[in-house]
């Protein structure tokens, strides 16, 4: 209770926990000479102490207060250890202070650093009346405010750490020096201390390390299926091996070290390999993890499924080859119910079977066409008495079909009547115009092959940079719909096919196009008459009419087709290029009826926003008046359309062929002598 002290060279404050570590903490000494005391903090421990009676303690505090009161100095009662305080002790301490002339009481906790500053500032205010009076806050309310303050400071400090520390290899001394000027660091250290700040830093670094390891793990696991595909793609090699033997097999592979690395220390995530970003090889001990084991099992399952799918594809092809229900030209929708079973649907999607079926159908059709061509050659006498323009009458066509009708090779193309008729017309065209362009052997024609060989081996200097479109391997494809009523579409399709090569290719202005025709004469809302199918994407449409009725049919069909695609993402038919053609009736080349049909066609063409061709401007007739020039003119008009230019791909030229070949090779081909593969 003394008010004057003399304690030179003594520390102003000291903690027993610092014994032996004094130099690690800031030291402040008492000033020299006598030190006057201006006030007292009377501390009362309100926790439950061992072997201590709080009532006896309160008596001691009361006696101590009596001594302090004699000094006439300000006194503040400080309740300590309130974080472990007993409610009755706190209540009794407040009652004691109230009985002693309303002593001010501050509830504190040094451990939680709650209200410690408030205790001193309250006493300072009592000593210096000029200072503002401090507001005394109860412990739990102060603890809540401080918790909020610490939480906010912690958030700011963690933000600071995340902004500065980007690598898990950062060290605390370097980082702490960088952060010291920052208020976020200073505020948190003031509230929680350096050790807690370091602890949060270490937690952040550990989190960065785990994230880095997880990224590397995901990268390795993503690479593992590729490694397994490259090293063990054969199911027979690993199907019955244990995991240990499978790993030994991997190590024995020549490319093992290209995909994997064997580390001297394990596990891999505790080695320096995890930080070697230039080495993306998979640590071999990663295969022991559950995730890698699952990927290995998935690899096995994938190989088994691939084998099963291959077996299903093979079985399906064999089923097609042996099925009596699969005939040339039979649509997939008709054949599906006869050749599909549950196993097929279980292992493969229907689109796969449709692709296999389409390829098989092509083989069947090509073989049927080849056989039918042989049949036509066998019955060559049927074609000797035709008119000079090689255009058979309907009666003559009827006779031809009647004679050939009993032949199985004729019946094989029953579902491809249009193509069968086209083959007949093409054969007739060849009989009366036997050239390499009309030859049924097409590319295999000896005349064409000799000409190609000569042209490729002996190129004149002026011709070296010229291109031969007939030899161009990049042939454009034109899918063309022919719309017409009462046989108009089918007859024009046959006329065009008769002018094509044997493999349905057509030359326009020296450029070769693969021509696929789809004649439509019925209700376009039916699938069989649809403009577009899964295997046929139209590039243009020729609309034929020779009467008001056939013109009405064309308009209705176009409108129905466009309506069927409204709202679809692939609304291709809305921009499909159209060409409206007036086809003259036989014997009707002029007159009011023709002029009326022309006017109506022009009006409809304007409505449909399409090209209109009339007999006077295009020189197009029908029946005996139509010829190759007219058809080429129609197709050229379609190709020249601005909208169609975006649908037909451009072709690239033929590369310059090497010259200086031996002429004797050509002579051997012409005379029939055998020529070796090397020649």
UniProtKB/TrEMBL annotation:
SMART domains: FF (SM00441). It is found in: Cell projection; Cytoplasm; Endomembrane system. InterPro entries: FF_domain, FF_domain_sf, FF_RHG35_4th, P-loop_NTPase, pG1, Rho-GAP_domain, RhoGAP-FF1, RhoGAP_pG1_pG2. Residues 150-207, 248-302, 309-363, 365-430 form the FF domain. Its main location: other. GO terms for cellular component: cell projection; cytosol; endomembrane system. Pfam families: FF_RHG35_4th (PF23083), Ras (PF00071), RhoGAP-FF1 (PF16512), RhoGAP_pG1_pG2 (PF19518). GO terms for biological process: regulation of axonogenesis; regulation of cell size; Rho protein signal transduction. It comes from the Eukaryota. Residues 472-647 form the PG1 pseudoGTPase domain. This is RHG35 protein. It comes from Lanius ludovicianus. The gene is Arhgap35.
